[in-house]
Amino acid sequence: MPDTALSVYPALFTFAVAAIALLASPGPATLALAASGAAYGMRRSTRFFVGITLGLVIAMALVATGLYVVLHSFPVLATALTVISVVYILWLAYRIGTAPPIRDEQSVFTPGWGAGFVLGVANVKAYAAFAALLGSFTLGTTAAWEQATKALICLLVCVVFDFLWLYAGSRMRKLFIHPTWNRRLNVSFAILMIATVAWSFTLTQ
């Protein structure tokens, strides 16, 4: 039994490293969090962060239970869901890219938990990453514990590193208070969000 437990540790470490590489790397959600932090600040972006986390939990559950594969066995439905997710991410990128410097706290559009939830559920990169992590790695434990352990590690990675992206964006905001630089920062984040959506589709091929 001790030998079995010891053999699990290298597998856990490898899985954790792979999870960080796939889930913490730039993507629509992470860049949207950084952009929200830069455009609206840490406090105003908290609900957006919570929404994205909840959406990613749903996405992970769809992959873990096989429902994601079932949905994509119907080409028309899969295409419709893909179009909806892409259009939504493009809309969110547009709102971030055109966000003005905050002067009137009540009138500025701020992505809430609903916007974050939809972004988390519609995140193409997340589905590809969850499918690779949950389906390609073996930890050497019982089936029930293995899936639960991998899901917990993925969730922890998403929460910790998404928060770090949000925090990094909020710190960046202090460097770009000037309206001109604020505009350039927001537009740059929006372009990067669109680029990562296009890149995400290469992961699913």
From TrEMBL:
It is a multi-pass membrane protein. It holds the Pfam family LysE. Keywords: Cell membrane, Membrane, Transmembrane, Transmembrane helix. InterPro entries: LeuE-type. The keyword Ligase does not apply. It is found in: Cell membrane. The chain crosses the membrane at residues 12-36, 48-70, 76-94, 115-137, 149-167, 187-204. PANTHER family: ARGININE EXPORTER PROTEIN ARGO (PTHR30086), ARGININE EXPORTER PROTEIN ARGO-RELATED (PTHR30086:SF20). This is LysE family translocator. It comes from Pseudomonas emilianonis.
